[in-house]
Amino acid sequence: MESSSLKPKEGGKHRPLTPLRLIRGVFCLIVLVLTAFILLVYFGFWTAIALRFLNVHHSRKATAFLFGSWIALWPFLFEKINKTKVVFSGDRVPDKERVLLIANHRTEVDWMYLWDLALRKGCEGYIKYILKSSLMKLPVFGWVFHVMEFIPVERKWEADELKMRQMLSKFRDPRDPLWLAVFPEGTDFTEQKCARSQKYASENGLPVMKKVLLPKTKGFYTCLENLRDSLDAVYDITIGYRHNCPSFLDNAFGIDPSEVHIHVRRISLNDIPTSEHQISSWLMNTFSLKDQILSDFYTRGHFPNEGTETGLSTVKCVVNFVLVMILTATCTFLTLFSSVWFKIYVTLVCAYMASTTYFNIRPSLLLFSIGLTS
């Protein structure tokens, strides 16, 4: 039984949607879209594509630096502007390891809170996700995901296997820091999905779980099979929310959640088997443990061994925000007062991004240089 402190409040959200929160949230979203757009138009092509023809390693470093500064704006929004408390527990992990992350998928914004941990470890520009392909078609944000080499999937193994293996083969260079995040449940948690998962588990002799869905094992096994020799560890991450699970707009407007709790287990690769069957059993056992950890969280209100990571530096967050805004303002000024040829260049880039987003035309140059498959 959940403790009363974790039950959703009667009548709604943790904080009311006041006019101030609405205005502030809209302003933050405009800033995030505008800064992403400017970085894409002015720097995305040159760092992710042009520089890549000369040196892949330097291309990734430049892309990670620029777009990592944009990603750092999100934890600044969550933790400093919206005053969401982020509590880390479990193992304290080293900086800048090459890792595979597995996490539960409670709601549509879980993956954004992994940025809070990545920022603390200096890997915000190197974190990559395996995510549903529809997110890669979002205006502006979808192109950021392309440039940062996220792996889109249709969630049908027959359609995804070849694409995943081709993308994973690009991530083997140990010189490139890597945080590859996988959500083995394949979809966010709902009570209806949980009931279907429990029915399937009981019919097939699998663990019946209450706070997570049964994990899909093929994607995780493929990642581990392709990257094991270049990884330092696997991070098993469990995310819990107080008092309500947030939507994207809840996050943007600072309505929910009041607290995000992130429990981290650092697992040595020596403790993970190698065969596909054994890895499937290991992942199932891992999610059974995760289910128990989450049940305890909803009873007690916290994970064990809290306080493993320090808070974000307000000074660093503000400095990064100011620098990104100065860069955005400078580029915007250049666009408005530049020559006609430069305006044509900007117009062509915008049209190209729009066409590839709305009509799902994979850009051939990005396809060739980054290795995405159509």
Automatic annotation (TrEMBL):
Enzyme class: transferase
Listed transmembrane segments: 21-49, 61-78, 318-338, 344-361
EC number(s) recorded for this UniProt protein: 2.3.1.51
Entry-linked Pfam families: Acyltransf_C, Acyltransferase
Catalytically driven reaction(s): a 1-acyl-sn-glycero-3-phosphate + an acyl-CoA = a 1,2-diacyl-sn-glycero-3-phosphate + CoA
Pathway assigned in UniProt: Lipid metabolism; Phospholipid metabolism; CDP-diacylglycerol biosynthesis; CDP-diacylglycerol from sn-glycerol 3-phosphate: step 2/3
Highest taxon, organism lineage: Eukaryota
Keywords: Acyltransferase, Membrane, Transferase, Transmembrane, Transmembrane helix
Phospholipid/glycerol acyltransferase domain mapped to chain residues: 99-213
Recorded family membership: Belongs to the 1-acyl-sn-glycerol-3-phosphate acyltransferase family.
Protein name: 1-acylglycerol-3-phosphate O-acyltransferase
Lineage of the species this protein comes from: Eukaryota, Viridiplantae, Streptophyta, Embryophyta, Tracheophyta
